[in-house]
Amino acid sequence: MLVRDPTLIRPRLELALALQNSGEREAAKYHYEQVLSAPLPDAVKWNIYRQLGDIRARSPSLKLTLEIASDTNPQQITSSKVVMIGGLPYTLTDTSQGNLKWGVAAAAELHYPLPDAPDWFAQGYGLAYEYPGRDLDNLYGQASFGKRFEWGLDEITLSAGGHVSAYRDRRQYTGWLARATGLWVMSPKLAWLGEASVKTYEYPRLRFLNGELSVLNMFAVLIPNPTRRWELGGGLAHYSSAEDAYSYWQPSVSARVSQEWPGGWITGMRVQAQQAKYRAPDPFFGLVRKDTEGRVELDVLNRKIRWWGFSPQLMFGYVKRQSNLEIYRYDRTYSRVGLSTSF
User: Fold this and answer.
1) How far, in Å, CA of 177 to CA of 199, rounded?
2) Interatomic CA distance for residues 98 and 330, integer angstroms
3) pTM: predicted TM-score of the whole model, two decimal places
4) Which end of the chain is more exposed for a tag (fewer CB within 10 A), N or C?
């Protein structure tokens, strides 16, 4: 019924409960939140809030994703034909430009509350990219331990741990991380999400890049009706590097909207804009670098389609960066066909 008419409330509630019982917590969370935008008796609303609390804190979960990815410029090679170096123009050859690459990406995300104290939890995340050859192979992993605090419908989560990255089968960097997240429910249709984090980066072969990344983000989640969802927000990032030429401030804004349609289709669009200004002149070009970057992503899925327990999703994206230093200008178009499942 929900496939034919996504505005129906009772079938969506029943679907959310079935998904929760089967371990698909993120899908269940989505449907519970969408239902809250409809007129409901207070008792039903409070029961949904209770189920959301159980999903967020007390249910172990494992999400697996496998994607086939295409990218016209995965190495972010400059799109400029001419680059100024030392006041002289240098023309780049065609081999210096980005080329279309196909690869495979796999990700795993684990959340495990302690059985006897579910407010305490361990979590981990891993991501791997595999392209033909070794030029673009990349591995990333992080693990942390934390505690969740509740005040009615609101909550704050504190966690700390470490992260590591490998590039071309060699360690790229390691570091520590600390994160605080918050959820503030203003009404059944509106909630605020906040995050503050700090990560350290230690590069064994590029020590001038060693530093700390501090990030502050705030988003509003607005659900005007059971079939539409908005996520609007912004953030501020600051990287403090061992050398000032690689330190920067970067504000950003983003918006995402998703819409459900008859037939089980869900479409989404995300736009993001950000600017970066570096602290000191680039040691090679002699100018302070300033970048402006825009991104657009479109995605589509159909919840009726499942293969061996996996749900397919298709995504297209485009990124363009402008910079006062020609070498850092680039654009890229990418797509991903993914399969994901939760336990």
Assistant:
1) 4
2) 9
3) 0.82
4) N
Q: Which uninterrupted H or E stretch holds 81? A: none
The whole-angstrom separation of Cα 144 and Cα 122 is 6
Could you list the beta-strand ranges (E) of 34-100.
61-71, 82-85, 88-91
| Alpha-carbon span 156 to 189, nearest angstrom | 20
Question: Quick one: pLDDT at residue 305?
Answer: 80
For residue 78, how many other CB atoms are within 10 A of its CB? Answer: 20
pLDDT digits (tens, 9 = 90+) for 268-295: 999 999 999 999 999 888 899 999 999 9
DSSP character for 263?
T
**343 and 23 in contact (C-beta within 8 Å)?**
yes
**pLDDT band per the 50, 70, 90 thresholds, residue 2:** low
Cβ burial of 140 (10 Å; 0-12, 13-18, 19+) is middle
User: Nearest 5°: phi and psi at 45?
Assistant: -60, -45
Tell me the per-residue pLDDT of 177-220, one tens digit each, with 9 for 90 and over.
999 999 998 988 899 999 999 999 999 999 999 999 999 999 99
SS3 for 325? Answer: coil
Evaluate whether 97 touches 105 at the Cβ level (below 8 Å). no
